[in-house]
């Protein structure tokens, strides 16, 4: 392991990359504050001895309405990377989402996940042939829903990352998903880059081939939906990063199967709307027309309950398990997620909720939006 890898994996994380936010972290702060203004109203004398935390997502019956959000370059947190996380997700029967920024090959991650439900999160390359190669690899490896992330074609301004030059790909670390792609390997050969001998050059080309320099528009969505449906035989297509009612309505108009209401945990647009507030707006507008999922700011079982009550049908978590991965690898990912499941299950037990679909606005008392401008640290 290089000095850089050791430094990032064992000293600076989770303080740095996993915990970095856009700008002054105002969106990150707002995400947490939004949860505080909703309070759960417990119901008494409800027999919850036979409560059921399971739910269904895209045809999969899963243990709880909780999934592993897509997070890239897991190997900077622990050498086992995505392999360990996918394994735990499969064990727990919780959906696992693999990021295009993954530091392990798609095929190995799929194998590690076993029979678990798994979805592929796409950052769409500038090269259509490369996009199709990624989609085919994902489908062939058992990833049966596609999640297009639209809010990160360019990284937000994150002070910690800039100050510490904390961009692993430019150091030749963590781009294994891309470097193992046959189309990308062909592009490297065309550019005179030997993927095996010059990982820095190859990794730099990978990040520049996918993220930098191309903002996509709605015009590209019909093509991507058509290609994925053709490859997968009609499996779900989802857009992640939706925050406005107008964009949610666009998704309905374009025939998108689901959306993830997400502001990338406050890592992209500083001073933006809290994702939970966006969820409430969007669910009120299109909740009966499209499958709504949520992420950004979730820290415990009550947060999951609040998101479900405000209209989400499923909730993804990211930082919780990535912090665990950085501390003790597979063992800590398992501990963190089993703890979250226990937290959610006990909340249902003592809150008088027997089934996931019983969560609605009647479970909450909600107060007016009121966000402090004091620059406090909120984990």
Automatic annotation (TrEMBL):
Domain FMN hydroxy acid dehydrogenase: 1-369
InterPro entries in the record: Aldolase_TIM, Alpha-hydoxy_acid_DH_FMN, FMN-dep_DH, FMN_HAD
Molecular functions (GO terms): FMN binding; oxidoreductase activity
Active site: 264 (proton acceptor)
Key word Flavoprotein present: yes
Cofactor(s) named in the record: FMN
Protein family according to the UniProt entry: Belongs to the FMN-dependent alpha-hydroxy acid dehydrogenase family.
Protein name (record): Glycolate oxidase
Organism: Aspergillus heteromorphus CBS 117.55
């Amino acid at each position: 392991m290089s000095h850089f890898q050791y430094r990032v994996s064992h000293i600076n994380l989770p303080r740095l990359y996993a915990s970095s936010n856009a700008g002054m972290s105002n969106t990150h702060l707002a995400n947490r504050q939004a949860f505080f203004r909703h309070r759960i109203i417990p119901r008494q004398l409800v027999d919850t001895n036979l409560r059921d935390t399971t739910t269904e997502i895209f045809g999969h019956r899963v243990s709880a309405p909780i999934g592993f959000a897509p997070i890239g370059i897991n190997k900077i947190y622990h050498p086992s990377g995505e392999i360990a996380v996918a394994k735990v997700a499969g064990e727990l029967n919780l959906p696992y989402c693999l990021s295009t920024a993954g530091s392990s090959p798609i095929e190995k991650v799929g194998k590690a996940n076993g029979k678990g439900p798994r979805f592929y999160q796409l950052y769409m390359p500038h090269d259509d042939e490369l996009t199709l190669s990624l989609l085919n690899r994902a489908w062939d490896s058992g990833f049966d829903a596609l999640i297009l992330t639209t809010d990160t074609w360019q990284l937000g301004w994150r002070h910690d990352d800039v100050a510490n030059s904390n961009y692993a790909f430019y150091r030749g670390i963590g781009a294994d998903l891309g470097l193992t792609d046959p189309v990308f390997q062909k592009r490297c050969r065309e550019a005179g880059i030997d993927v095996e001998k010059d990982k820095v050059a190859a990794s730099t080309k990978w990040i520049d081939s996918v993220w930098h320099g191309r903002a996509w528009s709605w015009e590209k969505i019909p093509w991507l939906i058509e290609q994925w449906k053709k490859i997968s035989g009609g499996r779900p297509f989802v857009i992640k990063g939706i925050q406005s009612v107008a964009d949610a309505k666009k998704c309905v108009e374009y025939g998108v199967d689901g959306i993830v209401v997400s502001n990338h945990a406050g890592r992209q647009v500083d001073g933006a709307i809290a994702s939970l507030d966006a969820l409430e707006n969007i669910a009120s507008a299109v909740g009966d027309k499209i499958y709504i999922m949520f992420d950004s700011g979730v820290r415990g079982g009550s947060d999951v309950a609040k998101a479900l009550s405000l209209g989400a049908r499923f909730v993804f978590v990211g930082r919780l398990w990535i912090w665990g991965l950085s501390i003790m690898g597979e063992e800590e990912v398992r501990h963190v997620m089993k703890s979250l499941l226990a937290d959610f299950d006990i909340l249902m037990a003592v809150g008088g909720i027997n089934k996931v679909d019983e969560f609605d606005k009647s479970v909450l008392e909600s107060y007016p939006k009121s966000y402090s401008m004091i620059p406090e640290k909120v984990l």
